[in-house]
Amino acid sequence: MRPSQSGAKPFGKDSSGAFKPITVHRTFQTIIERIVDAIDAEGLVQGDRLPNEKDMAEKLQVSRPTLRQALRVLENSGVLLIRPGQAGGIFVASEMIPAEVLGQKIALEADHVAELITARRMIEPIVYHMAAENASDRELDQIADTIVLMQKHIDQPNIVLQADGMFHRRIAHATGNQVLRRTMNGIYRELNPLRGALSQTEDRAQHMIEVHTRQLQAIRQKDHFLIDRFLEETFVDLEIEFNVTFPFGVRYAPREERS
Prior knowledge:
Elements (H helix, E strand, L loop, with lengths): L27 H14 L11 H8 L3 H13 L3 E4 L5 E4 L6 H36 L2 H16 L4 H17 L4 H18 L6 H19 L3 H18 L18
Antiparallel strand pairs: 1-2
């Protein structure tokens, strides 16, 4: 049965405090918990309207990509109905929270997140090492341009994230291997909402600029030891945030050094 907007009440003043800011680094699961708490605490029923995406992200102080990840899980679980367009919005699909189904959907999303982060750790070193061997001076200069763009807009988190994405895509392009480029572009695309889960501050942007500057210098110098060392700095944040660990990785070794 589809929720009806007739007689539906809009979300009120959030007397429960469910939509208070998320002040620590949390995953989409925390957002899901807050939305479910709001439905229960406010006595919302089928057809009632929740705050729109922009307002909800501001109330929770989370990125919109991360919020969309949570909303997608809730919609797939039958908790919410999301109608696009000017007359649309976010509505309660059922006040009967299907805890078991929701738990399964969260677990599936968490598994997918772990697979993404693992795939990145295994494939990205290959991309960086191949870029070091194959990149032209022009391609290296284009990668450097993305760092300049980040520095220029250091106080604008959304632009910094976009420039960061350009940095990674241009390194993938510099490998000269189109299969690797397509693979990494797909991984980066799906990682975007996860990266949005991390706090986006000017200090963090400056740290990102410094890390990318060191990485690019190592690529220019074809210093594969330093590439491995500096790559670790790009992996650790997401792995800590989403509690993804594994006892293996990829390291560069010239063929003649292998036994």
